[in-house]
Amino acid sequence: MHNDHKVFSPKNMSKLEHPDRYKEIPPLQVLEQLELEEGHIFGDFGCGIGFFSIPAAQLVSPAGHVYASDISDEMLQGLLDRLPKENTEQVTTCRAGMLGKDGQNSEITSLGIAKNILDRAMISMVLHEVDDPVDFLKQAAMSIKVNGKLAVIEWIKAEMPQGPKMDIRISEKELDSMLEQAGFMTERFVQLTQRFYLTIASKK
What we know:
alpha/beta, Rossmann fold, seven-stranded mixed beta sheet
């Protein structure tokens, strides 16, 4: 599902918690855009070391829960190492990529999260890394309730010194089409910074 040449390396995980990243994309403000609330069940697909999962756990507690999914055991351990003790009961880490295509009829999708349980979900800077973004979105959709909301953050498709190559970047228009193919309806686009945009969609 992931192309190893495009996937962010766990060796660079320290970059994921650089203070400049929190200034550029304040996670709590993004989660507010998603209307994440106490009691919600939240899924973070490609969670990394918990940039969104950890603040989400604080927002949904005590009655809600966070399912944090990643293909990297190192990233998932990095999340657990950073998770405050008071939120350990609110977070379950999920290893993605274990079931493959034949996991379609299982209660668990290939992204490691059970079907039809999520009120809100996040895919942040992941879609450009996968070989088949539409299939990834379809797998995510299987875990999201009808009318549940999904936030997607991606690099703006423009020439710039940082970030992925242009040929794997996904424009807002391309993402809108992908979301529709996967069973979502785009609600709005938000330009977060000069480098990143946010899309909010709901599951049909």
